[in-house]
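Page 42, continued from yesterday. The earlier attempt failed because a stray header line got pasted into the input along with the sequence. Redoing it now with the clean sequence only.
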Amino acid sequence: MRTRIKICCISSEEEAGLAIEAGADALGLVGSMPSGPGMITDDEIAKITAAVPPPIATFLLTSETDAAEIIRHHQQVNTSTIQIVDSLTSGTYQEIRKALPCVKLVQVIHVIDQSSVDEALHLAPEVDAILLDSGNPKLKVKELGGTGRVHDWSLSQQIRQGVNIPVFLAGGLQPENVQEAIRLVQPFGVDLCSGVRTGGRLDEDKLIRFVVAVKEA
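This time it went through. Structure tokens are written below.
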């Protein structure tokens, strides 16, 4: 099965076009976060989303932890997918589905230790996909993505083997290591931000090398 490619931290229509032209299947659009790169306003997310042609998926990265606030956030931007980067602390996934029946839900699991595997297996029945990243929501200033760090892929492999929904792999991926990541974890898709950027800007050369590496894997 072909490994899907999601390019995150898209900041403009120009970057969206560059990623799509290179072969991206999905684009990540980062809302307000406590830390990390790529944040843009809801108005900018909505503008980019409106310009992205199907079948390219658009992911809203939201740090909201209340179901009602996640719904409200999405209604400002109208992406095809919601990527919940923190734990849901109020309300339910069912509430979100009822309010937004055509929107896919992706829950981020920050892979830290064996408890992350347990968390993923517990939440998998609630969502459409899981995305495995290298943040740490337990810190005083939460890390919810965009760290550029590689986590323990053997834990990601356990999660991928234990769930029956698509799994995206993120965290420190780049053209030089993505083939090994795919070989070990065998994810549905791979996701990255800093690995295809230079000075914070999307780097066409790195982007093309990453896409070629994924396709060769």
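Notes: Residues 204-216 form the longest helix (13 residues).
Reminder to self: strip header lines before submitting.
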